[in-house]
Amino acid sequence: MNRYSLRARLLFLAATLLTIGLLANGFFVSSALNSYLMEQADSRVKILAQICARPSVATLKLPQAKKFTAQWNQFNNPVVVYVNRQGEVLRRLPPELTPPGGGPELPALDARSLDARQGEPFTVDSLDGSGRWRALAVPYRSPATPPGGAVEAPLKVVVASSLNQVDDAVSQIRNISVTVGSLLVCLLTLVGWLAVRSGLRPLTRIEETAAAIAHGDFSRRVPTLAGPRTETGRLTASLNGMLVQIETAFQAREEAEGRMRRFVADASHEMRTPLVGIKGYTDLYRMGALPTRRNVDETMERIARESQRLGQLVEDMLLLATLDENSSLARPGPAAPSPYPLDPAPMDLRTLAVDALHDIHAMAPDRSVQLTGPDAGKATSAPALADEARLRQVVSNLVGNALHHTPPDSSIRVGVGSVGGHAVIEIEDSGPGLTADEKERVFERFYRKDNSRSRAAGGGSGLGLAIAHALVTAHGGRIELRSEPGEGCRFRVLLPRLRIET
């Protein structure tokens, strides 16, 4: 049966069960009818046997017997036989009527065999085998008076009634049951086929949707054809939820592959620049284009700067790769360990803010720099549980971004304090600001607002903000950007505030 479709198996099972049920019902109905009609036949045979056992019936003359037998039709044309002790037939009633099937084929009717019947009805066949008879042997009540002038009185009276009406009724009921049952099976099989076809329509739609998805159409969904509380409705909802996750996963994979391709291309481009410089300087040295010691020292200094730039780029890429790998291996849950390599300890973000202020003064003495609280308020305590070295790297990247991407006359503000349940440190500048598209891409790897300017001025590789975003996320915090064209940028780092018990 596994070779056939589910629809065919359901129809076959339903038709088989229906056929078995109808056959069983017909069998029990016909058996009950047969038992009932046999009881009626036994009752008639017993009544007739009591009548025929009287001497008044046994001694009827021929004219009287003809008149009496005319009333026997109500007993299904019975046959009455009077026998003696030796089983010899002394008289048969009716004398001239021909019973159905030639009459019953009675067994031996001697005294022993009749006594063995014990007055219970029994069934015999007709003489020509076309029917059955129900017979009963009872004692003759007045053996002293022989019937019809016989030499000896009969011992028993055997009464037999034809069962043709019983057999015809039972056979008719069976034929009706078979005919009606066959028509009913055919009709209900047709109705069942339509019902199964309608009921399995959602599965057909699921099959079509799965085929479409297999050909690459991940936007397909299974249509809702049943209530949400039905098995089909719950299956449809589960499959559509699974399809959403599959589509999302494929989109995420495509986006990840696209980001990886861009990352490899950008990384190759960034690494090629210092490598080309190093190769050019070494070629000059091999060709003897550096005749003096001063020329050699200047070339070595440039090679050292390019090597440092290349080394910093490799370190940043390794850090991002480590963050990505550990993030992908992390498991969600409140008891899950941090997916990033951090060494957290209690600290106050004011230390980082003051150090950032000194760094700006050292790198750009002419810049206007101020230390405030969040949103230019008063600086307050900002306790947090964090890795100080990693947060210094975040603040350093934000400060470097503000110095390299703003004009020399732009002011910088360092804010620190607590906002709600967060410890906050922010770097704000009064530079040209960012457009909406630039704000969307500013945390992307290797993204720079002005590539030519950044390279010419010795700018970074475009990984600083990406690293800052990843490290802040590693601490369970977030980094926010507020910027409008012509209004500068404000990068705000929010970390969970550490509660200090006193």
Describe this structure in words.
It contains 13 helices and twelve strands. Residues about 60-65, about 330-340 and about 450-460 have low confidence and may be disordered. About 55% of the residues lie in helices and about 15% in strands. The protein has helices at about 5-50, 55-60, 60-70, 110-115, 165-200, 200-215, 230-285, 295-330, 350-365, 390-405, 435-440, 450-455, 465-475, and strands at about 80-85, 90-95, 120-125, 130-140, 155-160, 345-350, 370, 385, 410-420, 420-430, 480-485, 490-495. The two termini are about 75 Å apart. It folds into three domains: about 5-170, Beta-Lactamase (2-Layer Sandwich), CATH 3.30.450; about 230-330, Helix Hairpins (Orthogonal Bundle), CATH 1.10.287.130; about 345-495, Heat Shock Protein 90 (2-Layer Sandwich), CATH 3.30.565.10. It is α+β, with helices and mostly antiparallel strands and about 500 residues long. The strands form three sheets. Strands 2-1-5-4-3 form a five-stranded antiparallel β-sheet.
Strand content: 5-15%
Q: Which class of secondary structure composition applies to the elements?
A: alpha+beta
The top level CATH class name of the largest domain: Alpha Beta
Low-pLDDT windows of residues: 60-65, 329-339, 452-459
Q: What is the count of structural domains?
A: 3
The total strand number stands at 12
